């Protein structure tokens, strides 16, 4: 699945990184606790979250996450978008709630990753 | 690369949203040096959790990272309140983070367990009222 497919499945709006939407995504993680996200390592992952602050982008940067989906129509601010562009992370925003957004992607074949070293 | 590289950073606690800049710089540096991506990620995550802790729990501090040919050593020093019971603090889910931090996505009590998970070695020295020193090592295979 590509970021483009995710955008389409969720009817999401692209906030930045539209030139990177052909990149592959292999797994997903949905959480509002960033240490939870940091406990999980998978290559080419997408993060779904209801949080909306700069540390979400930082967390994605540390994890090499390629795409962040903000649920419930959350919109990142300028500083977040700037950092995401610098780190080549695509930002999407969808009106779906967390449960539905995760369900839609799961149904499309996307799976979660395992915790690291456990 | 035969010599070690020493990197020093000050971590400021005024603005939580800016926390993670030191970890970001270290990550960038290691990536540019061509260090194995898994090692880079493990250093970045464990350092980032430590940096966040310094900002949330200890009014900031200093970070020193030393890059050797076969390992990366990280030392995080602060003059914060210290940790009374380190064993308890290490427990998954234990946190003293205030609600405003929890609403920003931190304070799940998973930071120290994550640092232990990603680093090959983790040592914490702490004195109540004096401060905390966290030392981590990640080996380069
Ligand atoms: N540098 C530090 N100075 C003082 N206390 C700390 C420090 N780092 C961690 N702690 C204590 O250990 C607890 C657990 O830390 P951690 O596992 O990172 O979880 P969290 O940061 O989510 O609370 C913290 O809530 C805090 O009480
Ligand atoms: Mg923490």
Summarize the structure in words.
The complex is a heterodimer of chains A (about 120) and B (about 140). Chain A has about 120 residues and is α/β, with parallel strands linked by helices. Chain A has one domain (about 5-105): HprK N-terminal domain-like (Udp-n-acetylmuramoylalanyl-d-glutamate--2,6- Diaminopimelate Ligase, Chain: A, domain 1, 3-Layer(aba) Sandwich), CATH 3.40.1390.20. Helix content of chain A is about 35%, strand content about 20%. Chain A has 5 helices and 6 strands, in the order αββαβαβαβαβ. Chain A has helices at about 5-10, 35-40, 55-65, 80-85, 100-105, and strands at about 15, 25-30, 45-50, 65-70, 90-95, 110. Chain A has a 6-stranded mixed beta sheet, sandwiched between helices. In chain A, helix 4 (about 80-85) links the parallel strand 4 and strand 5. In chain A, helix 3 (about 55-65) runs parallel beside helix 4 (about 80-85). The model of chain A has no long low-confidence stretch (mean pLDDT about 95). Chain B is an alpha+beta fold and about 140 residues long. Chain B has a single domain (about 5-140), classed as Heat Shock Protein 90 (2-Layer Sandwich). Chain B is built from 5 helices and 5 strands, in the order E-H-H-E-E-H-H-H-E-E. In chain B, strands 1-2-3-5-4 form a 5-stranded antiparallel beta sheet, with helices on one face. In chain B, a hairpin with a 3-residue loop joins strand 2 and strand 3 (about 70-80). The longest helix of chain B is centred in the middle third of the chain and has 22 residues, at about 35-60. The chains are: A alpha/beta (about 120), B alpha+beta (about 140). At the A-B interface, helix 2 and helix 3 of A face helix 1, helix 2 and helix 5 of B. Bound molecules: adenosine-5'-diphosphate (ADP) and magnesium ion (MG).
